[in-house]
Amino acid sequence: MHHFLKETDFTIEQAQQVFALAKEFKANRLNSPQTLNMQSWGLLFYKSSTRTRISFEVGINELGGFPLVLSSQNTQIGRGETIEDSAKVMSRYLHGLVIRTFEHAIVEAFAQHATMPIVNGLTDFNHPCQLYADIFTLLERYSPEAMDLQTLKGKKVAFVGDSACNMANSWIHTAAMFGMEITLAGPTGFAPTGAIDAALAADGLPKQYHYTTDPKAACRDADVIYTDVWVSMGNEAEATERKQLMAPYQVTSELLAMAKPDACFMHCLPAHAGEEVSQEVLDSPQSIIFDEAENRLHAQKAILAKLVELNS
Ligand code: CP
Ligand code: NVA
Predict the structure, then answer these.
(1) Domain of 284: which CATH number?
(2) Could you tell me if 190 and 228 lie in one domain?
C-alpha cells in the first residue's frame, strides 16, 4: 500500500507527475476525472483546521468521491480505542484516510495497520501536503508551462522563526529532495533537531541546511522568505515564552528588502500579523499566501489521484 506520510513518499519523477496533474486540475477545475468515483475517504482530525479540511473535502468531492469528516474526540479513538483496531475497522468502510494529529507515530501506526492509503494532513513533525502546494506555487512562478522541478535547483529559501516546527522540518526535507538551498533563522533553543537529521539520513538525503540566529543573514539574497506561527498547535502552554524569544524574528519589510528584488513571501497560514510577520508584508505584492492556500486544493487532488494510481 502506497501512503503519503512525508514528502519523499513520492519519487522525484512521481512528484513531477503530481505537479503536472495539479496544473491540469487547476486549469479545468470543475472537469476533473472522476478518479474517486464511488470511493469514500475519511478526514480524521485531532487538531483544528480550515485549509486542510476544506481543500480535502472539496477536492475529494470534485474527484467524484465522498468525503467523511471525523474528529478524534467524537469517534471511539477519543475514548481509547486503539489505533490498530481503528485503522482496521475504518479500512473496512473507507477507501483512504487523511489524518491530522499530534505525534508522527500516530500516522505511521495507521499506515502500518490500515489496508487503505493514509495521507498525512499535518503532524507535530511535518506537513507534506502543505509543501506540495508550496512547491506547486513556486513552479507556477519559475516554470509555469513545464512545471519543471529542475528550475528549483539552487533557489534560496529563508525560513524564519520556529526552526524546529513541523513546517521547518518539511521545508528542510523538501529542499534536500529538490536541490534547493535553505537557511533557517530562529532563536537558540529553536534550531532544527536531530529528528529531521535522522529523517534525511533515512532517505539518503544530504544534511545541507544552514541554521543561524541572525534573520538578516538568512534572508540576504533569498528567493523565498517563509515563516510560520511561533506557537504551533500543541505548544500553547509555552506561548508567552515563545513570543518573547521569537520577537526579533518577525518578517518585516526591512527583512524582505534583504532578499532578491523579485523574492516572494510565503506562509502556510493561519498567520498572526504583528507576531511572526507584519501586516505590511502579508499585504505586499511580494506575498503569495493566498495562492498557496488555493493550491492546497489542486495539489492535494493530484496527490490523491497519484495514490489511487499507485495502489491500483
Ligand atoms: N496551512 C494549513 O494547514 O491550514 P489549516 O490549519 O487551516 O488546515
Ligand atoms: N506549525 C503550525 C502549522 C499550521 C498549519 C501548527 O502546527 O500549528
Answers:
(1) 3.40.50.1370
(2) yes
